[in-house]
């Protein structure tokens, strides 16, 4: 492969990461064959409701790394995308009946929860056949924010970088509704400010 093939450039990128909390405990304590099938269906419920046509860079068991170079989306569209995936995830969970499961796999499945980290930054990428590998400090920020001090188990976290780069009438309108302000420290980068709100099943 020539050096040309390895040349990358930094591109403004929207990052959305849905993360299934409780995944490792579920997989370690459930029937493997059945649990793999169930997790696959839950991940598909997220992928099938990708109405913003986000690209997928990676699926890591309990997380999906979505990204987009489209700067024409609005904050409201991005939030609705997360809320839709959240609802469809729980709709799929409801189809698994613990009463009909002799091994308890379905019962443990209902302990799973879903959260979202939404960040915007500049990333480089490398194409390996049909697979796009993303790189950059903003990807580190997004992954680091998956582990935070938020009390809720299910929520959307939206960094200030998203609020600055995507259209929203007023940030204060989010704070005055169901959103709260937060911040986390990322090693070698510093403090990252964000808004977050609890997600609830309708």
Give a verbal description of the structure:
It is a single chain. This protein is an alpha+beta fold and 202 residues long. The chain has one domain: Nucleotide cyclase, GGDEF domain (Alpha-Beta Plaits). The chain is 32% helix and 31% strand. It is built from 7 helices and 8 strands. The chain has helices at residues 23-28, 32-47, 75-93, 105-109, 137-144, 160-165, 171-175, and strands spanning 11-21, 55-59, 64-68, 113-128, 131-135, 155-159, 180-186, 190-198. Strands 1, 2, 3, 4, 5, 6, 7 and 8 form an 8-stranded mixed β-sheet that branches. Helix 2 runs antiparallel to helix 3. The longest helix has 19 residues, at 75-93. It is globular. The relative contact order is 0.18. InterPro entries: Uncharacterised_Rv2561 (IPR020503). This is DUF2652 domain-containing protein. It holds the Pfam family DUF2652.
Brief write-up:
The protein has helices spanning 23-28, 32-47, 75-93, 105-109, 137-144, 160-165, 171-175; strands at 11-21, 55-59, 64-68, 113-128, 131-135, 155-159, 180-186, 190-198.
SS elements, strand count:
8
String of helices and strands: EHHEEHHEEHEHHEE
CATH topology: Alpha-Beta Plaits
Total DSSP helices: 7
> What is the CATH H-level superfamily?
Nucleotide cyclase, GGDEF domain
**In one word, what is the shape?**
globular
Radius of gyration: 18 Å
Q: Major β-sheet, in short?
A: 8 strands, mixed
Beginning-to-end CA distance, first to last residue:
51 Å
Tell me the CATH architecture: 2-Layer Sandwich
Average of pLDDT: 87
Write down the CATH class.
Alpha Beta
Summing up helix and strand content along with how strands pair, one would put the structural category as: alpha+beta
Fraction of residues in helices?
Answer: 25-40%
Strand content: 25-35%
Unreliable parts: 1-7
Number of domains: 1
